[in-house]
Design goal:
By secondary structure, this protein is of the alpha+beta class. It is 64% helix and 10% strand. The protein has a 5-stranded mixed barrel with strand order 1-2-3-5-4. Helix 14 runs antiparallel to helix 15.
Length: 456
């Protein structure tokens, strides 16, 4: 029976390897075939100029041009979009003439914001606080040609304000995910963390695969697919998906396949707490040098503390004091978890409907995360085999590597996308695609694992 199971395991790995190679070449083709819109090209030109990577004279030329603008010929526009601040990289001398504020319509057009003298117009007060939200703008616009390139300039007619739907949406994300993590805390106790000492090899192996190997695999695939340069926020989304803690669904899948449930719960618990350190650390480590990307480490840490650590502690405290009530409410919170995941996907798509019209730009990312999910399962299985874990523990480690807290990674993406300048919601789309891909691969794994003998 052991040889039969080994052959089945080898066959599964070979099948996944075939799928991996097929998707690899298809994804490469899609990535190379993608076309960059004009607004995005202009954004990159100005961004590179400000950061000293392109025409360093462009910011000064734009500033000189603003003094010649005849606003009596301007056109008034009202639209929804984002405000973005471009400035030199850390270590450079930051001067007013090298900092550029851009306004971007949701449809993609870029406008260079003309700033008045300091304190001359109260409508411009607190611009940096507007960077993290979608805003409603009313501007006057003029287009001028600089070095053969049309650049649109804008000045504010009214003070921008945050969209009501955007404000409600972000509050809803925080409340829903907070309650979901309280529900997770209701299922945990201190003894779930004791496995670090009782089953140290399984825990260490699972965490090493989860936070050590798979983020590197995401970086490798992202580099090979060309996302690092051409679609940096898809690259960041892939790293974020692999830097997120294990999802509670991994425990369910482990139970369905008669895996080591205690090990699975312990891995989920420990990885969730460790996310406070490893999620921002890995994003900073692998994405800080990505072109046109600045990782808001402080905001990510704050988000994890508020949406993970605090509700987890609350849930565990409630279980410790009222265990019966905690047990009765777990079903409600399980349903809430599914509702939260669906809400994030549906509401995220609705709030970013304009960018989803260009679905073709995400096709390469969708295939890349499917490859990533396949790699996660294979590496989980191989890692467990290397430490000679039995089949029961193998399933727990494999599902823990594959199934991540997609709700958390999507929430982080949506909460930081505006301040990072991810105008096409590529991080959200990538993490959402992974949330789908991990269940597709997980379903296949369940079918295979159920036909294999469970060793105790």
């Amino acid at each position: 029976m052991f040889k039969t199971d080994s052959l089945k395991s080898a066959g599964l790995c070979l099948s996944f390897l075939f799928v991996f190679l097929s998707l690899f070449f298809l994804t490469t083709f899609c990535a190379l075939a993608s076309e960059v819109p004009e607004g995005e090209r202009l954004y990159k030109v100005i961004s590179d100029a400000v950061r000293g990577k392109g025409d360093a004279t462009l910011p000064a030329k734009m500033k000189e041009q603003t003094a010649k603008l005849d606003w009596s010929q301007s056109q008034t526009l009202t639209f929804e979009g984002n405000l973005r601040l471009l400035k030199p990289q850390k270590g450079d001398d930051v001067r007013e003439d090298t900092q550029v504020y851009l306004i971007r319509k949701l449809s993609g057009e870029i406008f260079v914001l003309v700033l008045p003298e300091a304190g001359a117009d109260p409508q411009y007060a607190g611009l940096e606080k507007m960077l993290q939200d979608k805003m409603a703008f009313k501007i006057e616009m003029l287009t001028e040609n600089i070095d053969g390139r049309d650049i649109s300039f804008a000045r504010l007619v009214d003070r921008p304000y945050q969209l009501t739907f955007d404000k409600i949406f972000k509050i809803s994300i925080i409340l829903l995910l907070f309650l979901v993590m309280v529900g997770m805390g209701l299922t945990l106790s201190v003894k779930d963390f004791v496995a670090v000492f009782t089953k140290p090899l399984g825990i260490i192996t699972g965490l090493l695969i989860q936070y050590g190997i798979l983020p590197l695999v995401a970086v490798l695939i992202g580099r090979l697919m060309g996302f690092y340069e051409t679609m940096p926020f898809i690259f960041v989304g892939m790293v974020l998906a692999m830097s997120s803690p294990g999802g509670v669904t991994s425990n369910l899948l482990t139970q369905l396949t008669k895996g080591d449930l205690a090990l699975s719960i312990s891995l989920t618990s420990v990885s969730t707490v460790m996310a406070l350190v490893f999620t921002p650390l890995l994003l900073s480590l692998y994405c800080s040098n990505v072109p046109n990307v600045v990782i808001p480490v402080g905001l990510i840490v704050q988000t994890i503390v508020v949406l993970v650590i605090i509700p987890l502690v609350i849930g565990m405290s409630v279980r410790a004091k009222w265990p019966n009530a905690a047990q009765k409410s777990t079903k409600v919170f399980s349903i809430l978890g599914l509702v939260a995941l669906l809400f994030l996907i549906v509401a995220g798509i609705i709030s970013n409907m304009a960018v989803f019209k260009e679905f073709g730009r995400y096709s390469g990312g969708a295939l890349a995360v499917l490859i990533l999910a396949v790699c996660a399962l294979i590496l989980g299985m191989l890692g467990a085999k290397l430490i000679r874990a039995n089949n029961s523990q193998n399933r727990a480690i494999s599902f823990q590597a594959l199934i991540r807290n997609a709700s958390l990674s999507m929430a982080i993406s949506l909460l930081i996308q505006d301040i990072m300048g991810d105008f096409y919601s590529a991080m959200f789309v990538t993490t959402a695609f992974y949330g789908i891909a991990m269940y597709l691969v997980g379903t296949l794994a369940i079918a295979v694992f159920r036909k294999m003998q469970v060793e105790q």
